[in-house]
Amino acid sequence: MSHDHSLNPKTMPEDPAKATMEGKHKFLGLWFFLGGETVLFACFFGTYLALRNSTAGGPTSQDLFGLDLVFLMTVLLLTSSLTSVYAMYHMKNNDFKKMMLWLGITALLGFGFLALEIYEFAHYISDYGFTFRSSAFGSAFYTLVGFHGGHVVFGLSWLIALMVRNAKRGLNLYNAPKFNTFALYWHFIDVVWVFIFTVVYLMGMVS
Amino acid sequence: MTENTSTNKINSFQKEKNKDEMRKQIITFALMIFFTMIAFFAVGMGISSMFVIPLILILAIVQVGFQFYYFMHMKDKGHEFPALLIFGGIWVTFLVGVTFVTIIWW
């Protein structure tokens, strides 16, 4: 009972995500994880940079990539990053319904991004015969971009699980850190995407 | 009663502070969209790659800086550890990038 009371205070603290010790630990733990993720993606980017011209007579990056689709994907993911900032803004104002609404919009934008990525891969495979096994470029491309897409899938599953599980709980000091942790992860996915659209797509169309 | 009014005052102050913060976030977002558009236009117009590649890389780094410092709040107090972890990750990224790009020179 007293435990329940301490997690549901009458007035929410200024930053509900970091008001409890557990919240502080979750925050630090996620940043540790993101540091590791940076190293993971660094390896994929390094591999891609080394192998992007090893096309083995198959399609090259100039044959494959198109500006329009990638721009649309970028706008969707960048906007979903902003909508999760909105969700955290409403969390700090202790407005649970608006937070859930903006998280829902974030999920929709994430699904839009994912749908475009699936369409993109299907287009490469069926129209160009460009697969994971086509060339070293193919392997490096699908590993890097596919792993980022995998992060989006994981992020969306995480978000939906959080929203369903906490739908009837309302906002309290127990679940505020969970939402905040998700938002940080979601921003990081966008950070990785910024380098993907720059290094993979834009640089692939230039050189 | 007095306690109640004082918390309400803090709340309205906090709300205003949060609103101010949100305004900064929207400016950040507008700048990020703007940088993205410059990068895509530069590539779409077909300017020489000697100029375009450094330009889009710089734009990406600035955009990621905004994402880390504003969207992910690294500019706020108490983010020394996150900064250490992320800059550690960036250092490794730099090393890996240099290694893999130079290993194919021979």
Automatic annotation (TrEMBL), chain A:
InterPro entries: Cyt_c/ubiquinol_Oxase_su3, Cyt_c_oxidase-like_su3, Cyt_c_oxidase_su3-like_sf, Cyt_c_oxidase_su3_a-hlx, Ubiquinol_oxase_su3_dom. Keywords: Cell membrane, Membrane, Transmembrane, Transmembrane helix. The chain crosses the membrane at residues 28-49, 69-89, 101-119, 139-164, 184-204. It is a multi-pass membrane protein. It comes from the Bacteria. GO terms for cellular component: plasma membrane. One of its GO terms (molecular function) is cytochrome-c oxidase activity. Its main location: membrane. This is Cytochrome c oxidase subunit 3. It comes from Oceanobacillus polygoni.
Automatic annotation (TrEMBL), chain B:
GO terms for cellular component: plasma membrane. Keywords: Cell membrane, Membrane, Transmembrane, Transmembrane helix. Its main location: membrane. InterPro entries: Cyt_c_oxidase_su4_bacillaceae, Cyt_c_oxidase_su4_prok. The chain crosses the membrane at residues 26-45, 51-71, 83-105. It is a multi-pass membrane protein. The keyword Nucleus does not apply. The keyword Oxidoreductase does not apply. It is found in: Cell membrane. This is Cytochrome c oxidase subunit 4. It comes from Oceanobacillus polygoni.
